[in-house]
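Weekly structure sync - notes
Attendees: PM, LS, DV (DV joined late)
Agenda: review two folding runs queued last week.

Item 1: First target. Sequence and structure tokens pasted below for the record.
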Amino acid sequence: MLRRGRLSLKGREPINTPCYLPPSSRGCVPHITQDTPLASTWQVLEKVDGQDLPIYNTPTSPEQSRLRQFIALQHDVLLVMGPRRQPPVQARNANTDTSIAIQTSLGFSSLRSDDYVGAVQKLKPDIVLGLADYEHMKRPGVKRLEKMGDRTLSWTQDMVAGLRGDADRSPDTALFAPILPIEAGQQSYYLDLLKEDLAGQTSGLVLFDAASVDAVPADMCHMPRLSLTEIHGPLGVLHNIALGVDIIVPSFLGEATDAGLALTFVFPIYGRPANGRRQQLGINMWSKGYDSDLSPIADGCKCYTCSNHHRAFVRHLLEAKEMLAWVLLQMHNLHAMDVFFDGIRGSISTGTFESDRQVFEESYEPELPASTGPGPRLRGYQVKSGRAEPRRNPQAYRALEDAADKLAEASSPSPAVDGEGLTKQDFATIT
């Protein structure tokens, strides 16, 4: 099931597959600016109700994308839009016959099929992912299974009709139809109509579980497959590709950067470690051992960070909570992923992928190393919104009423008082 290919759309830089889409938040890939070279980006539609949204009023020519203009994305970068963030968040409300449940920056809400179609017509992404009656982390019951295929078919037909009926839309807008994460027999009616009536109207497939590749009809196996499976590391990437996935959205990429981790794995590996010990998939830049380390993050890495800075500098920036720390880490990690996928494509071409994959699994730890420091300031896309969850970062601010009372009672220190004296008078704390 291994395969290589090329994803090409008019006016966009062709992308060799297998490849990855860096997930975005609020219109950009976290920590980097829009002028950073990228091959593709993943955008999430969080709110479509109301015609007064600024993005809908972005001035463009008829052939231009309002979404691309609004987020100032480079012209040749592939723009993919989906209805849910990656990784998705379990919504507290349920899907209906006309809408799916989503989490937005304003809380949980519902995204109607007709609103989604209207947004796609106005925003004109290069690729749009169809709506699917799938609820994250919820196991469907018997009655629920009967509805999933019918609802997904109805929403896919809505999108096909909307794209075909919009005379002003870009002809390059491609629809990726969803394949539900259930048995092929449980969605057979939907799959039959998808390959018979809608095959000419869809350009690719989106999977919510990589194992759903087996449910893809034989007549549609030539289409590119985008996986939204939640992946926690490079071993998951290799597993998805082995199943026949072409495009991956690796959520662990941003999570590693936020945690202060620099990715250092390579693929393929030529020879196992001499000491027989498994290598770490990355290094924790919060480690105090890098305080005076003037070597690059990864030896031989040609990214901007490794070419111009050293570990001690990145470690200092993290300690100082400078956002440049996460910018440099993200640039390195994006480059590491680019090199990783270059190696994957080369391994497939030479016919050594399975053996290379086995060596990789035996040479690296199965999970990324744990972080020992706080991440950057939390943004909406990072919050899971579960019940009774602990704080991800320690509390940065606290009420100062007690300190104000103590200061009012204390006498002002003289200029000759040292640090210990200031501490005794509650004017300072020695750390």
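Item 2: Second target, run right after the first with the same settings.
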Amino acid sequence: MTNLPKDSSVPGEQFEVRQTHPTEDYTPDPSKSLKLSPARQRLVDDIIALYSCEPTIERVKRYTPDCVYDDQFVYANDRYKMAGQWFALPKLFKASKNERYQIVVDEPGIIQFRNEQSWTFKVIPKTATINALVTLSLDPATENSDFIQVKYHKDQANDKDYSHEGLGFSFKKWQADQVMKHMDSPEVAEFEADKGAAKEAVNTYGSGAAEGDAPTKEL
């Protein structure tokens, strides 16, 4: 499906998977979910737990030091920034509940699933439910091990992909950097050495549509 690098030393930026979707509807149907191997299922369980405001050091270690996390609000390009994001969630949300998910792609180097998550804010008594397509690009060095790690984690809530350009993207990078300045916890400090992990310039595409190297896929 996707030609990802086979060399684990390649920085996370090169493991990005791109796609547009015919609609914005990523509603999961668990009855159609693909069955994963036990090791891959444990990985997904840990990722779901992170989404559900249950961060631990061991769960953050599911990412390689040079990982990239990319969603509509954040672009974090190492595990130190990634740790800051996950450990900040319980400070921002009263609760986060995984309603359901559906594995739609289970192939060498990649897992993709439709995810439905309900977020309850701390300050505002309101719950928002978001459906998204989650893409996990796997580390070639650990893909066949008992503890699989992730090189690139993309969370895509709209039909279009991310262009990585403009004010919106600048905010995403700024947000990831700012969170670290306000996180004073031993759990996040555990990953401070990762801020020196290998990085490459952000890939830009001009568009999040098909012409921006994001082919239409029905997932």
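Discussion on item 2: The CA atoms of residues 134 and 211 lie 21 Å apart.
Action: LS to circulate a short write-up before next sync.
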